[in-house]
Amino acid sequence: MLLMQKKEIRILKDMIEEKFLPFVRRPSRYIGGEVNQIVKDLGGASITVGLCFPDIYEIAMSYTGLAVLYEVVNGLSWAAAERVFAPWTDAEKVMRDNDVPLYSLESMAAAGDLDVLGFSMTNEMCFANVLNMLDLAGVPVSSADRSEEHPIVIGGGQVSNSAEPMSKFIDMFILGEGEEALVSVLELLREFKQKGAGREDFLVEAARRFEFVYVPSLYEFEYDGEKIKSFNAKRGDIPVTFKNAVVDDLDTAAVPAKPIVPFAEAVHERVSVEIMRGCPGRCRFCQASYCRRPIRFRSVDRIVEIAKQNYLATGFDTVSLLSLSTADYPDLEELVVKLKEYFDPKRVGVSLPSLRVKEQLALLPKLVTSVRKGGLTIAVEAASEKLRKVINKNITNEDLFAAIEAAYAQGFQLVKLYFMVGFPGETEDDIKEIANLAYEIAKLRNNVDGKTANVNVAISWLVPKSHTPFAWLGQKDRAYFERAKKIIFDRKDELRGRFLKFKFHQIERSILESVMGRADRRMCEVVETAWRKGARFDLWSEGFDYGIWQEAFAEHGLDAETAAQRGFDTDEILPWEHLGGAGKKYLADHFNNAMNDAL
Question: Which CATH superfamily includes the segment(s) 13-32+44-233?
Answer without folding.
Answer: Cobalamin-binding domain (3.40.50.280)
